[in-house]
Amino acid sequence: MTPAFSAGRLPLWQHPIRYKRRITDVDSLNGVYYAPRTMIINPGDAVPGFPGMVIMDLDSIDSGVSLAYSIQAEGSLDNSNPTKTLSRSEARSIGANFETITEHKVSWQTARKACTGVASTDIITPTDGPHGCANGQRICFLSLTGGAGLTAQGLTTIAVIYYLINITSTTFQVSLTAGGSAVNFTSDISAGYFMSADFFPGTPHPLWPTMYLSEVRATDNMTPWRTAECSYVGKMWDKPYHRTITVAGQQISSTDKIVLSGVADADSSPHFWTATLPEIVITDVYVDISALPTGRIPSSYSEGGTPPSPPSVRSLSIGSDNDDDLSYQWPNQWSLVGTNHIESISSGINLTIYAQVYQYKWPQLLK
């Protein structure tokens, strides 16, 4: 029996509603929804009562009193916004390199959306139709004209993540924390674009705060649904540093002829004395979220130039009591001689691979 509608009556579904839940693909929904004739539903809208489902096909019958909408929808029956993760892969290592996460998603929120905003109310209005977002969803601003107090991404600035609050079907406010108070922007937004943070490069992974979205590849079949491959790069856990030790030749010589005596099979004729001392170099490679530690270059032993857990170095004795025969090395013993940048994710993110180079020199050498 077709329900009759009168003023004040609520829309309702005609049962049965058919659901299909999938692990590796989008969910589906088929059903008939009755609504007052004043309520207009369009393909691409969220399904009434199912914010994660997007209407793909829509047939309507006008009874003169109500509209009967035959709805075929796809999306996520479990999520509060129409994005579903289909698969995930991780690459972790103990090596001195970034780690990666790759996620395959389907969503109707991969693209930017235009918006305006009113400073007196801190309310933002998407201008491209229903936004389909949910309270608590993370977004970023791609660009803003006006909106003082809000931060959009720039050439040297990674976009700030905002959380949606106080959502209506056509408006929302933003907060810096989930469920927090609305950000007060002090000038109207005359034009701007926002995007879901799930598809905005430079944003951290919602579960791994030091894994950053580095690339998004999105494809579609000319429907609101797009398949997106999201690649994250960063550091999942703290990593031990990686060390290499090299010993190179450091040659010294005397300007005066000397004679070696008391040494078996030694050449007793006068000759210039030449010796090669080892010059020890340690290179420690780090993956770190701190800014490059460039303030300690150069650094002598007394100023903290010793590497962490330095290897034992055999002592060297030079048989001369005359200071005039000795040349003093500076910086001597362990010294930090360089900090070398290897790779960064972005100039706006303090997540780098860098090398600290330490050198050991004996404090005294023969002239």
Question: What are the key terms here?
Answer:
six-stranded antiparallel sheet; 3 domains; 367 residues; mainly beta
Largest sheet: 6 strands, antiparallel
Q: What is the number of domains?
A: 3
Distance, first to last CA: 109 Å
Number of helices: 0
Estimated radius of gyration = 34 Å
Q: What is the string of helix and strand elements? A: EEEEEEEEEEEEEEEEEEEEE
Strand runs, count: 21
Structural class: mainly beta
Global morphology: elongated
Name the assembly state. Answer: single chain
Name the helicity range: under 10%
Low-confidence stretches: none
Order of strands across the widest beta sheet?
A: 9-8-13-10-11-12
Mean pLDDT rating: 85
Q: What share of residues are in beta strands?
A: over 45%
